Structure formats: structure tokens, C-alpha cells
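I hope you will forgive my troubling you with a question about protein structure. The record follows directly beneath this note:
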Amino acid sequence: VEAVSAAAAAQGLACRAHTVEALHPWEAILDHAKAEAVDLIVMASHGRRGVAALLLGSETQKVLTHTQLPVLVVK
């Protein structure tokens, strides 16, 4: 997280980095988004398909399911 924040600063971009520990990452992401009053959540997707996606679940999918905020998914 520090490396990404430093890389953004080196390019002249404003960046606020946060880390949060939680039992359920998707809940922590939504709680933090609410606390920070964000306009957009950006998340990565591993692109799992089929049975693997169903069995493993996806934090991105859970965020998409449980928020009304816009979510940008990057593959």
C-alpha cells in the first residue's frame, strides 16, 4: 500500500491509502467506503468462472451485491 501511495505521489497524484483488517473483507470495504463518503469503489476481479467462482465466492461480487455505490471492476 505504501509503494502504491508513493508511486502516485511521485506522479503528482493525490492518494490516500488505508488498510483495514476484518473477518469479512467485503463488509470492511463497504464500512470504510461509507465512513469516507466515497463516490466510487474500484476493485479487481480474478476472473474466475464456473464452479470455481461459485465455490470460492468473490469479495468483489459481495461488494457489488451489497452496495448501491458505483463499483468499477478491473480485470
